[in-house]
Design goal:
Layout: H1 2-25, H2 27-35, H3 41-62, H4 68-90, H5 110-134
Helix pairs in contact: 1-2, 1-3, 1-5, 2-3, 3-4, 4-5
Length: 145
């Protein structure tokens, strides 16, 4: 059971560590990439700081068993937002298609990026399920049993 839970945790920690640190190490490139997206410049500026901070916060939260479930949930939420945005770009829902600027993932097209994100969503859901399943039930029932 512990190994089954540690695989999704390790995969997500690696994903978020890589993406968060890459955005910090290459901050100016990352910031320019945010400003090249389809949302307003003010939002892009906020996201250029908030996204790597959120990614690394998820890593920290996932390092501790007491908070890991919240890290999995944060991972699922962030991946869902990213996947929705990538999916909208992929189906050309915006007037222009921005560059796919994500470090080593730059070589992926929007379709590949979408499917990869769905894969990590699946890992997050599996991790949430397994982490919830391992927690002991607390409290007592209304019948006192």
């Amino acid at each position: 059971m512990k190994t089954i839970l540690s695989i999704p945790t390790a995969a997500l920690i690696l994903l978020w560590t890589y993406t968060g640190l890459d955005k910090i190490v290459r901050f100016e490139d990352s910031r320019k990439a945010f400003h090249n997206q389809t949302f307003p410049a003010e939002l892009a500026e906020i996201l250029s700081y908030a996204v790597p901070a959120a990614e690394l916060l998820i890593v920290v939260v996932m390092l501790f068993s007491m908070t890991r479930w919240w890290g999995m949930l944060g991972s699922l939420l962030l991946l869902t937002v990213f996947t929705t945005y990538v999916g909208l770009i992929w189906v050309e829902a915006f007037p222009r298609i921005p560059c796919n600027c994500a470090g080593i993932l730059e070589s992926l097209g929007w379709a590949e990026h979408f499917w990869m994100n769905l894969f990590f969503i699946g890992i997050s859901v599996f991790g949430l399920y397994k982490d919830k399943a391992k927690k002991p039930k607390t409290g007592s029932s209304a019948l006192g049993c």
